[in-house]
Amino acid sequence: MEHSVVVKLEKITKRFGPVTANENVDLLLNKGEIHALLGENGAGKSTLMNMLSGIYSPDSGSIFVHSEKVHFTSPKHAISYGIGMVHQHFKLVDSFTAKENIIAGSNKSFLAKGNKELDEIKALCKKYNLSLDLDKKVMDMSVSEKQMLEIIKVIYKGCDILILDEPTAVLTPQEVEVLFDIVRRMKEEGCAVVIITHKLHEVMALCDRVTVLRKGTTITTVEIKDTNPKHLTELMVGSETELSITRQVPQNTKVIYEANHLTVMNKEGVKMLDDVSVALRSGEILGIAGVAGSGQKELCEALVGLYPLAQGELIYEGQNITGEKPREIHKKGIAMSFVPEDRLGMGLVGSMDMVDNLLLKEYHTQTGFFLNKSSVKAKAEELVEKLSVKTPSIFHPVKMLSGGNIQKILLGREIEANPKVLITAYAVRGLDVGATHQIYDLISEQKAKGVAVMFVGEDLDVLLQLSDRIMVMCGGKVTGIVEARDTTKEEIGMMMGGKTYAN
């Protein structure tokens, strides 16, 4: 084994019942490199890293760390070999300070007296250029501060092999750059870093090498200097894929639906939307940007009558529909469709098949005692064909399908209703490259038909390519509405952080 290799995975296989997550996977990780693990949703990336970090044990194959064959029995065991993982969902105690979280997660005494531990933590923060208030409680921290805390926790434990799982998913562009600087500093210090991601532009900007997984197996490992986003996409998918998003200039737009001065409160009396106004125009896509939890969910639900207003009004084609429930809105003949972020909670009933889920949209419009399923069956078959839905049958429970196919059914059902207004929340979250671009095409088709589309997204590159205008939210407020063609990712990022855009 080469001297620079710190981790070697050899023919790793892992099964969960009848499902094979990884099969004969090989991976080499070098000292002082940033290595991307790339693949479509379900390719086995997280499972593989969960084995390296001690969460799972492989069914077969070997793991070598610094040339020593190891059999990890727990994350703590992996940490003893210098391997730490920062997960998408942070493992922090909200009521503890940063310092308390760091020490509590280590082998050192939580009740240790003196400043020795504090001095050690401060030295590590300085070494890796981590700006962190050690006396601040987790409950008062931003997402990026929590992520920094998780990283310093792992380093404090003595880890020099770091795994980051989708680390930029909820960060602003400015916070992403801070994170990248930290990771580059760790590389300079000789650490090995693995990043699990699906963002190709980040892979190209940050990493030295990339290993591509497809359907649980290793396709190849390539040097970043020898590849490009199109090539990586083809490796992930297994065929040529068109990555471009065609954006047509809106024609003859007019305001279809407007919300004026919306304020909504949660059950605890906290303002989730604070004086939010927005106009949706025919033949236009309005993108909504913001760090997770900035009020996007509440805005969507308020617009479709699912979230009560404390203040404000909703006007649809000149008609005041403030306070109307979804059923009442539909009865008024208002053609509005909603694709929620919770596909199997709010969108579809997982135990039902395609036909019954399509019926949910129109059962109240049918007359007579018995529901007429024949027309709905035909619609279901049509959607399967049109959207390339992979399902054993239209009578197969939708919860048994992949995330991409579930989303196609949900979006297809809402589009089938011929809406004038289409509201989508994170329509492509967790989907693979192929399914993602199908969804973009469907949304663009609706725009071409004159539909007013609101697209809540988390990938700023996509928002800039797909949207005509972008509204940015921070802390339940609108910090700016800009023309997508005339703005930059950096400008959007500043607004996501709370800076108000001045027209």
UniProtKB/TrEMBL annotation:
Q: Which GO terms describe its cellular component?
A: plasma membrane
Q: A GO molecular-function term, please?
A: ATP binding
**Superkingdom field:** Bacteria
The record's subcellular location field reads: Cell membrane
ABC transporter domain span: 7-240, 257-500
What does the UniProt keyword field contain?
ATP-binding, Cell membrane, Membrane, Nucleotide-binding, Repeat, Translocase, Transport
Membrane-topology annotation of the record: Peripheral membrane protein
Q: Which Gene3D superfamilies match?
A: P-loop containing nucleotide triphosphate hydrolases (3.40.50.300)
Can you name this protein? ABC transporter ATP-binding protein
The organism's taxonomy opens as:
Bacteria, Bacillati, Bacillota, Clostridia, Lachnospirales
